[in-house]
Amino acid sequence: xxxxxxxxxxxxxxxxxxxxxxxxxDQVVPVINRLLDRFPLVLSSQDWHPAQSxxxxxxxxxCVQESQGAALHPDLQAxxxxxxxxxxxxxxxDGYSAFEATNLDLAQTLHQAQVDHLYIVGLATDYCVKATxxxxxxxxxDTTVVLDAVAAVELTPGDGINALQAMSNAGVRLTHSxxx
Length: 180
What we know:
Protein name: nicotinamidase
Mean pLDDT: 96
Number of domains: 1
Low-confidence stretches: none
Number of helices: 4
Organism: Pseudaeromonas paramecii
CATH superfamily: Isochorismatase-like
Number of strands: 6
CATH class: Alpha Beta
Domain Isochorismatase-like: 4-175
Oligomer: single chain
EC number: 3.5.1.19
Strand order of the largest sheet: 3-2-1-4-5-6
Family: Belongs to the isochorismatase family.
CATH architecture: 3-Layer(aba) Sandwich
CATH topology: Rossmann fold
């Protein structure tokens, strides 16, 4: 059995200057880059919305397929990513969790690679990281969120802390990169 690193939505539109920026979202990139060589399998998820999506009734237009905003952050060492997952690809598809990817089945991919422990990093703690971590637990994976490699949107103050508490209550481990 082995472990894998899943980078959730470290995309331009979720970083400062983007359409739906996470405050200091770009600060997770150096931490993630330092972790890459510690995992035999590195995956990433990306919001990949069509130009017309029900998702944009709730959120500003962001991460439209093939746009610069949908691209991974330019400082992320993307050449280390072996598997890319695209989510939110339908007109009525929110795609918060990487387990909702439409281009492949994440749970099946992890099982085929004999992954038993999934480490999650990325954006945003209170939405896509949380949804992905909770789905990982439901799918039977030991799951750890790396605290200094995630950042929250915080639409309401405390959303990030509340998300971490919900994940911990569900069985997700929380750690810092220095412990890996």
